[in-house]
Amino acid sequence: MTSANKNILTLCLFLAMIAGVCQADHEEDSWVFNRQGMFKVSQGNLSEAIRDFEKACQLNPFNDTALTNLACARNNLGVLLAQQKQYEEAIRQFDAAKAQKPEDISIRLNLLSILVNLKNSAAVEKEAREIITIRPNDVEIGLKVAAALQKTENTNAAVATLLELTERVPDNADVHATLGRLLQRCGQLDESSYHLKRAHELNPADPEIAKNLERLSREVSVEASTSTYTSVHFSLTCPDTFTSDWSEEMLRLLEDAYEEIGRQLDFYPSQRSQVVILQTETFRKVHDLPEWAGGVYDGRIRLPVPTRNIRPAVVKDAVMHEYTHHVIYLITSGSCPIWLNEGLAQIFENNYQNIERWTYPDQKSEFKSFSEIDQLFRLNPSRKQAAILYKASLITSARLVQKYDWDRIAGFLEYLGMGYDLNRAATEAFSADFAELEKICLLIEKIE
Fold first, then answer.
1. Looking at the domain 225-327, which fold is it?
2. What average pLDDT does the segment 430-443 reach?
């Protein structure tokens, strides 16, 4: 070997040694920054921790521990930002965490929850599809995704998600039962029957599935001889014996309810709301309800009408009442307390512009808490007991509207739909804790 070649070989070995030393230094520095980041996480300083984890990953792109910590810190920061209602920045953190750990379902579910709260239907559907792609056979995840899609009124996507899940996991009773109930609420009774029967075969001991099947059988027996009419925002199903003129008048009443209630609660359903009209005798046959019930809401608005000769205007109050339940369900994702749900429905049923006539400023309630009213509602009360509960709900809700205003009532409902508990929702909407609302509305004691 010539002297020149020896020199070249020596230089290459020297450079390799330097590179190895530098690489080792970078790896060690990467772990130093990772430890610094962990310390800052323990102090609750997530923003600075993220910068340390990012530096650790830059120094050593193969440091999986630092990468995992970075994604976790961004996810935790996103949760905190969401709690502070800084939704845009929260989404940015979740998106970054998702890019660093795309297989982490918890990050994606947190992002999905924010998008649901913002009622961003298109973004929810996109994220839902990505989650299903990662966990195509995970029943729990599939049910959560379908629920998220329903909360943004994307019923078609929810049905499609559950249908695909039944194909991949054909023997799961929960999936068939959930799909069957959803199809039943959509009025697709034949398809609902198939999935509920399949759920019953897979889990014959579940009383709720058996109950749904029984009620579905009664529905099918009476809805076979019905006709359906549509307007811009409603789909109306009523007996064939009712004329098209009658149906058109009913649709006009429903559109009026859409505008009036939507204006006060600042919410307008994006999909057509489904309404089913049955003659009173048939209504009682189909629905296992107390004899005093004047309607029912179970995803579809169901109203009894005494005879086909009665004009729709006669049942306008019931229309307003049940449509209010529909809107509140969509806003709160079904988490509104009963006293407020029934109270607001009665307010809209009875001319919402005259709140003062129900507030009775000096009349104390016989109930000591809102939860007591709700509990008694759930115990299938008699007509007399129900009348007392409805009156209490009306008075307490009217006092709440009078004390605050419709904008803040709408905000309270929205916070409930975002998953806030009652106390936090009250604090955000009214700057008062829930116990103070009880004092104001039930007159438990004088508020100075």
1. Glutaredoxin (3.40.30)
2. 90
